[in-house]
Amino acid sequence: ALEDECGTPKASESVTKKLSEKKLNDKVPIEKNPVESSASDLDKQIRELSREKEILQAEYSKAPSTGNALLRKRREEVETRLDSIDSEMNRIKLRIRSKKIS
Protein backbone atom coordinates (compact mmCIF):
# COMPACT_ATOMS: atom_id res chain seq x y z
CA ALA A 1 0.00 0.00 0.00
CA LEU A 2 1.12 3.54 -0.65
CA GLU A 3 1.52 5.22 2.73
CA ASP A 4 3.71 7.94 4.10
CA GLU A 5 5.79 7.64 7.27
CA CYS A 6 2.71 8.35 9.43
CA GLY A 7 0.69 5.58 7.79
CA THR A 8 -1.51 8.03 5.91
CA PRO A 9 -2.49 6.80 2.45
CA LYS A 10 -0.97 8.85 -0.33
CA ALA A 11 -2.02 9.26 -3.92
CA SER A 12 -0.01 7.70 -6.70
CA GLU A 13 2.28 9.98 -8.68
CA SER A 14 -0.06 9.89 -11.68
CA VAL A 15 -3.03 11.00 -9.54
CA THR A 16 -0.95 13.74 -7.93
CA LYS A 17 0.23 14.92 -11.36
CA LYS A 18 -3.33 15.00 -12.71
CA LEU A 19 -4.47 17.05 -9.70
CA SER A 20 -1.56 19.44 -10.16
CA GLU A 21 -2.34 19.91 -13.85
CA LYS A 22 -6.01 20.44 -13.05
CA LYS A 23 -5.15 23.13 -10.51
CA LEU A 24 -3.18 25.13 -13.06
CA ASN A 25 -5.94 24.82 -15.64
CA ASP A 26 -8.72 25.79 -13.20
CA LYS A 27 -7.98 29.48 -13.35
CA VAL A 28 -10.47 31.93 -11.95
CA PRO A 29 -12.22 33.61 -14.87
CA ILE A 30 -11.40 37.26 -15.36
CA GLU A 31 -14.39 39.59 -15.27
CA LYS A 32 -15.34 40.75 -18.76
CA ASN A 33 -17.19 43.85 -17.51
CA PRO A 34 -15.42 45.12 -14.37
CA VAL A 35 -17.82 48.04 -13.89
CA GLU A 36 -20.77 45.76 -13.14
CA SER A 37 -19.04 43.39 -10.71
CA SER A 38 -20.24 43.73 -7.14
CA ALA A 39 -18.04 43.92 -4.09
CA SER A 40 -19.16 40.42 -3.08
CA ASP A 41 -18.17 39.07 -6.51
CA LEU A 42 -14.76 40.67 -6.16
CA ASP A 43 -14.38 39.29 -2.63
CA LYS A 44 -15.27 35.83 -3.92
CA GLN A 45 -12.64 36.11 -6.67
CA ILE A 46 -10.04 37.16 -4.09
CA ARG A 47 -10.91 34.16 -1.89
CA GLU A 48 -10.71 31.73 -4.84
CA LEU A 49 -7.40 33.15 -5.99
CA SER A 50 -6.05 33.03 -2.42
CA ARG A 51 -7.00 29.38 -2.13
CA GLU A 52 -5.35 28.52 -5.45
CA LYS A 53 -2.27 30.49 -4.41
CA GLU A 54 -1.99 28.56 -1.12
CA ILE A 55 -2.22 25.23 -2.95
CA LEU A 56 0.41 26.23 -5.49
CA GLN A 57 2.72 27.66 -2.82
CA ALA A 58 2.53 24.37 -0.93
CA GLU A 59 3.37 22.45 -4.10
CA TYR A 60 6.21 24.85 -4.91
CA SER A 61 7.73 24.56 -1.44
CA LYS A 62 7.67 20.75 -1.63
CA ALA A 63 9.19 20.60 -5.11
CA PRO A 64 12.93 19.97 -5.20
CA SER A 65 14.99 22.84 -6.61
CA THR A 66 16.99 20.34 -8.64
CA GLY A 67 15.67 17.51 -10.69
CA ASN A 68 14.90 16.32 -14.16
CA ALA A 69 13.52 18.52 -16.93
CA LEU A 70 9.92 17.59 -16.13
CA LEU A 71 10.25 18.72 -12.49
CA ARG A 72 11.96 21.96 -13.51
CA LYS A 73 9.24 22.64 -16.08
CA ARG A 74 6.49 22.04 -13.52
CA ARG A 75 8.21 24.29 -10.99
CA GLU A 76 8.47 27.01 -13.65
CA GLU A 77 4.76 26.62 -14.51
CA VAL A 78 3.84 27.00 -10.84
CA GLU A 79 6.02 30.12 -10.55
CA THR A 80 4.36 31.64 -13.61
CA ARG A 81 0.87 30.89 -12.31
CA LEU A 82 1.72 32.33 -8.88
CA ASP A 83 2.88 35.54 -10.56
CA SER A 84 -0.33 35.80 -12.58
CA ILE A 85 -2.43 35.14 -9.45
CA ASP A 86 -0.62 37.95 -7.62
CA SER A 87 -1.23 40.32 -10.53
CA GLU A 88 -4.90 39.43 -10.75
CA MET A 89 -5.37 39.78 -6.98
CA ASN A 90 -3.75 43.23 -7.08
CA ARG A 91 -6.06 44.31 -9.93
CA ILE A 92 -9.11 43.12 -8.01
CA LYS A 93 -7.97 44.88 -4.82
CA LEU A 94 -7.56 48.12 -6.77
CA ARG A 95 -11.08 47.73 -8.15
CA ILE A 96 -12.43 47.16 -4.62
CA ARG A 97 -10.64 50.29 -3.37
CA SER A 98 -11.93 52.37 -6.27
CA LYS A 99 -15.50 51.21 -5.55
CA LYS A 100 -15.15 52.31 -1.91
CA ILE A 101 -13.93 55.75 -2.97
CA SER A 102 -16.73 56.25 -5.54
From TrEMBL:
Residues 39-95 form a coiled coil. The keyword Coiled coil applies. This is Enkurin domain-containing protein. Keywords: Coiled coil. It comes from the Eukaryota. It comes from Rhizopus stolonifer (Rhizopus nigricans).
